[in-house]
Design brief:
The complex is a heterodimer of chains A (484) and B (263). Chain A is of the alpha/beta class and 484 residues long. Chain A is built from 24 helices and 13 strands. In chain A, the strands form 3 sheets. Chain A has a 6-stranded parallel β-sheet, sandwiched between helices. A 4-stranded mixed β-sheet of chain A has the order 8-5-6-9, with helices on both faces. Chain A has a 3-stranded antiparallel β-sheet with strand order 11-12-13, with no helix packed on it. Chain B is of the alpha/beta class and 263 residues long. Chain B is 49% helix and 13% strand. Chain B is built from 13 helices and 8 strands. A 4-stranded parallel β-sheet of chain B has the order 2-1-3-4, with helices on both faces. Chain B has a 4-stranded parallel β-sheet with strand order 6-5-7-8, sandwiched between helices. In chain B, 60% of the residues are buried. The chains are: A alpha/beta (484), B alpha/beta (263). Chains A and B meet through α1, α19, α20, α21 and α22 of A and α1, α2, α3, α4 and α8 of B.
Chain lengths: 484, 263
């Protein structure tokens, strides 16, 4: 997927004006976020599990080369094939070639963010192969010709009416809108036929288990299970960080992933795949391929300040908790990964220069850090990226700040380096803004404060600083009580 | 982990770090902080040379501008002994949690900053830790709600103490605030740089405030207070947003409370 991170402000503004989408985005809070809170409260050792999850991921990422080697060996021992792809293009070409070489006519896809990085469905279609998304949300998005809006709820921004218009060819504006069940059955009927004729599936990987060479898929619709059992070829695509050492580790990770994602204790389906059908087995695919993709993850790995972001298990909890995501929506972030985690990984994976608005689009409220199942300190990394974008210290090409901005902060520093300058600065601001003020508040301030006063009154500096007032207080009979 | 205040040796002297915003925009909050601390029997010192903790520049990414200002803060406050009290969770978090990132190329400075940070407390955290949340028993007749400032709860882990302090104020009817722990949208420079997003987040907060049906909103960080008050004023609302130090100071200033010092 081609990054469009430069469009953040434009796309964010569009969402801010779209009441229907904002209403839909409420569900990520009332549904997922509050569900997560309940699930966490109902899990007695919840904090312990998070700590354990973080330790597992820290360890795995620190020894990633070892575990990737072990995984590849074990997948091959199980009869599968492993392909390491340097970037999205290489991964895409590999899968398209696989399909082409094996005379594949129809590919069914189950949900995978990595395949979004690869823009795989479009590439298959361009190669003359039918490629259909089978996760309901992804299917809706594919019909709409869009990209996912959320890590686990790709079509969260679509209203029931939108969905009806996409799924039901006879639906016209103004018709009574069918219920969710009815719409789901409609999609099911359409997808069932595709499942039956599919000769290849592409799935994602929630976790790959190094010691056994298995992959785990977490779904609620059963499409993952259908995808991994019906077609003759199964291709699983994963980012190279989606790995855990052992089955025991997998059990910890599944517990925190599922609760953090949907608030469920367990999803309807957890599918484990241990390679292709064995000679003595009756069902399952004849071929199993695992595509392990880098696509810029090595940049995160090589960057001690950003490496922790590879711990992400893509649960989406940070999106649901984020007040910014809930106002700007998923498309504003301009690449595959939206929300707080997207603001951290996209700039490194696709280039900070174009994506510098992303780390700045945060109030640093810390809700993302608070909910993260593996305790990724996202605010810290946002600050790191702000620094790189503002000053370009580690790489001058990354610098995205304007001369005006740099001058502003230089003057700020000069003003803060001495008490007399600090007081003088406050006096000058008061003197400048006072003519525009009424009873200590300003309705319309000049830049750089004009953004503030479009929606909020701004306070005038006080007539006396605290230092002066405390000095007055010490004078005999001095009191400042009842002064504004 | 909150410790039992009765086992904590109570300080007799504290140094106030006002924060730049309180110093120049809201000195009343600073005075209220002093009044409450004095009510607790503390001698409060104010270092006249203080300016800012450097958070605004740091959060905007301008670390080379933030660094000398932060170093100046450390040099100033390492000269005094005893607890340092800050009426802001956000500025306290800057010193305690982020100086180590800002100073990371200078391990000596990191260590000096840690020693200052170890005895630097946010205002309500300080009262709760050394005096207990029942140390202030005053009276204010008002109907209010409490907004949980992000850095206070998430960076410092101070969640309960402010509300407990408020529950001990006679006559103060505290009403629940829906989504009290969701950000008000301030975020420092974010409120100006991405004003439209900041305002959209604020709108949700103000809707919840208006639904709470109160006269007063209490918060513990001046930035959040101006964000909410500025927005309420623009809406034409009469609801006042005040700092928790102001309410507590008011509660102990009435005639009935004269001479009822904690010790």
């Amino acid at each position: 997927m081609k990054p469009e991170t430069t469009q953040f402000r434009v796309k964010a503004a569009a969402t801010l004006d779209n009441k229907t989408v904002l209403q839909s985005l409420e569900h990520v809070y009332t549904g997922f976020h509050e569900g997560r809170l309940t699930a966490a409260a109902d899990t007695p050792n919840w904090e312990e599990l998070r700590t354990k999850g973080k330790a597992i991921k820290d360890h795995t990422i620190a020894h990633l080369d070892y575990y990737l080697g072990l995984l590849a060996d074990n997948v091959e021992k199980n009869g599968g094939h492993v392909f390491f792809a340097e970037d999205a293009a290489e991964a895409r070409e590999h899968v398209v070639k696989l399909a082409h070489d094996r005379n594949v006519k129809t590919v069914i896809k189950s949900k995978s963010m990595v395949s979004e990085e690869m823009a795989l469905a479009d590439a298959l279609i361009d190669a003359g192969i039918e490629a259909v998304e089978t996760d309901l949300g992804e299917y809706i998005i594919q019909l709409a010709g869009e990209t996912p809006y959320h890590l686990i709820a790709p079509a969260i921004h679509k209203s029931r009416e939108d969905v009806a218009a996409l799924l039901d060819d006879d639906f016209k504006n103004g018709d009574p809108v069918p219920g969710a069940d009815e719409l789901t059955m409609l999609a099911r009927a359409k997808l069932r036929a595709v499942f039956e004729r599919a000769d290849m599936s592409v799935t994602g990987v929630n976790f790959a288990v190094a010691e056994s060479g298995s992959i785990a898929l977490v779904t609620n619709e059963g499409n993952g299970r259908m995808s991994t059992s019906v077609p003759r070829i199964h291709v699983a695509v994963m980012g190279m960080e989606k790995i855990v050492p052992s089955i025991q580790d997998l059990s910890t990770m599944l517990r925190i992933l599922i609760r953090s994602a949907t608030g469920q204790r367990i999803t309807s389906y957890i599918t484990m795949v241990n390679g292709p059908r064995k000679p003595d087995e009756e069902e399952g695919p004849e071929e199993f391929h695992l595509v392990i993709m880098n696509n810029g993850r090595d940049k995160l790995l090589a960057d001690p300040q950003m490496r922790e972001s590879l711990n992400c298990i893509r649960c989406g909890a940070c999106l649901n908790a984020c007040p910014v995501y809930r106002k700007v929506g998923g498309h504003a972030y301009g690449w595959v990964y939206p929300g707080p985690i997207g603001s951290v990984v996209s700039p490194v994976m696709t280039g900070l220069k174009d994506a510098h608005d992303l780390p700045n689009a945060s109030s640093l409220c810390g809700a993302c850090h608070e909910v993260c199942p593996v305790k990724i300190n996202i605010p810290r990394m946002l600050l790191e990226l702000r620094w790189r974008a503002a000053e370009g210290k580690s790489d001058s090409r990354e610098r995205a700040s304007s001369v005006k901005e740099r001058m502003l902060w230089k003057s700020w520093r000069i003003g803060m380096m001495g008490r007399r300058r600090f007081d003088l600065g406050a006096r000058i601001s008061r003197w400048l803004l006072r003519p525009m003020s009424k009873r200590g508040w300003i309705k319309k301030a000049p830049p750089p404060l004009s953004g503030w006063t479009t929606t909020r009154d701004f306070p005038l500096a006080a007539s006396k600083s605290l230092k002066q007032r405390l000095a007055d207080r010490k004078k005999p009979g001095g009191t400042n009580r009842d002064r504004p | 982990m909150p410790e039992d205040p009765s086992t904590q040796p109570r300080p007799e002297h504290v140094t106030l770090f006002a924060t730049c915003m309180v110093d120049q925009l809201a000195p009343g909050v600073g005075e209220s902080t002093v009044e409450v601390l004095e009510y607790l029997g503390l001698e409060v010192d104010f270092l006249d040379d203080q300016t800012c903790c450097a958070q605004p520049a740091f959060n905007s990414g301008f670390r080379s501008e933030a660094l000398p200002v932060a170093r100046r803060f450390v040099e100033l406050f390492e000269k005094v002994e005893g607890p340092i009290v800050v009426p802001s969770g956000s500025c306290a978090a800057m010193v305690r949690n982020y100086y180590r990132d800002l100073f990371r190329d200078d391990p000596d400075l990191v260590e000096r900053a840690r020693r200052v940070g170890d005895r630097l407390y946010e205002f309500t955290e300080f009262i709760d830790r050394f005096f207990g949340n029942d140390a202030i028993t005053g009276r204010v007749n008002d109907t209010a709600t409490y907004h949980k400032c992000c850095h206070l709860i998430r960076e410092l882990g101070v969640d309960g103490p402010p509300l407990e302090l408020l529950e001990n104020v006679d006559g103060l009817e505290m009403r629940p605030l829906e989504r009290a722990d969701v950000c008000c949208g301030f975020g420092g420079a974010f409120s100006v740089k991405m004003a439209d997003i900041s305002s959209a987040i604020l709108d949700e907060k103000l809707d919840n405030i208006e639904a709470a049906g109160v006269n007063t909103v209490i918060a513990a960080d001046t930035g959040c207070i101006y964000q909410m008050q500025g927005g309420l004023r623009r809406r034409g609302s009469d609801v006042q947003v005040v700092h928790i130090a102001e309410i507590l100071a008011k509660s102990i200033s009435g005639p009935a409370q004269t001479g009822t010092r904690a010790r």
